[in-house]
Specification:
Blueprint (H helix, E strand, L loop, with lengths): L4 E5 L4 H12 L5 E4 L4 H11 L6 E4 L2 E4 L1 H9 L3 H6 L3
Parallel strand pairs: 1-2
Antiparallel strand pairs: 1-3, 3-4
Length: 87
């Protein structure tokens, strides 16, 4: 079983595009929530993550941050094990 991955994003944000690409390259399923046109979803994202920028990525309901944070985990060799762990 794999991790539950949720990404709060906007459609054309360059960091969101990079995050999508990285997750797609890892061949993992993820739920994407577009906060671009819904202020209530944006506020929920801020409340859950403590941040007001996109993307905000959660693995098994734990905030890991944005694209740069996820890419760092990947470079450190930690992302694959997080993605393989069910929550």
């Amino acid at each position: 079983m794999s991790a539950k991955i949720t990404m709060y994003s906007t459609r054309f944000c360059p960091y969101c595009m990079r995050a999508r690409s990285l997750l797609n390259n890892k061949n993992v399923a993820y739920e994407e929530i577009d906060v671009g046109s819904d202020t209530s979803l944006w506020q929920k994202m801020q409340q859950l993550s403590g941040r007001d920028s996109v993307p905000q990525i959660f693995i098994n309901d734990e905030a890991i941050g944005g694209y740069d944070d996820m890419a760092l985990l990947d470079r450190q060799g930690k992302l694959d094990s997080l993605l393989a762990t069910s929550g």
